[in-house]
Amino acid sequence: MRAVQREPLDPKNPLRFTVIRVPFFLEPDYPRDESWSETNRVRLERKWGGKQEFEEQKRRHRLKERGLDAGIKHFNLDRLASSTMQSHRLVQWVTKNYGCTVSETLYNDLNKRHFELGQKLNDRKMLVQAASAAGVDAQKAEEFLASSEGEMEIEGALHILRRMGIHSIPNFIIGASEVYSGAVHSSELIQAFRKIEKTGKGAPESAFAQVLGIPDEVLGQPLDASYAEASG
User: Which residues does UniProt call coiled coil (predicted)?
Assistant: First the structure.
């Protein structure tokens, strides 16, 4: 997105972006109790069938190298894994009420807190702190997390993902029509964006805005170009 915005094909009609983070559960059967967690190391060794098998998988997929390419210098392997329902709900609520620039700020902060600092994503106190740091009213965020608001929307999005045959992440869905799966290189996404940019019409459709309850006025407020620069 930064590359396309820095050098638009038509400065009078630049491509702008609205980002919706679609919820996905790596571990859908995790207990939603806030007190429950396990280390990610334990989760992955169980998933791959043992310590040796997990080490072999890391080498095959070059996870450390890919993290460095994305600007993540240190993955905390012993980070606390937990249900992500609370964090998914919060990101969607912030998107609906504060717009995608604020929700992206929150999302990036949550990634750092979890993947690098090892914090668990169902910790309400941490989630409120992260929301407040992104500019969200802390009391309102706390009241929201204490409710069950948004859970049905999350379940609805998961149903659409299953119907689309998406069972893993990452996936990038552009304009509700094109799907790019796996660790897609930035050059592929730039090519896709340039193709849309050349039409001069954009790709305003969304496969998930309706089920997630994201209003049209939010979709009409693209990600701030200044944010795209700052987040790099």
Answer: none
**From the centroid of its chain, how far is CA 82?**
16
Number of H helices, E strands in the chain: 13, 4
How many domains, in total, are found in the chain? 1
Tell me the C-alpha distance between 232 and 19, whole Å.
16
Tell me: pLDDT of 70 over 70. no
For residue 31, tell me if it sits in a domain: no
Q: CB neighbours of 115 closer than 8 A, spacing ≥ 6? A: 72, 75, 76, 79
Q: What is the residue-wise DSSP string for 98-154?
A: H-HHHHHHHHHHHHIIIIIT---TT-HHHHHHHHHHTT--HHHHHHHHTS-TTHHHH
Range of the domain at 7: 1-11+39-230
Q: Identify whether the C-beta of residue 196 lies closer than 8 Å to the C-beta of residue 16.
A: no
pTM of the predicted model as reported, rounded to 2 decimal places: 0.90
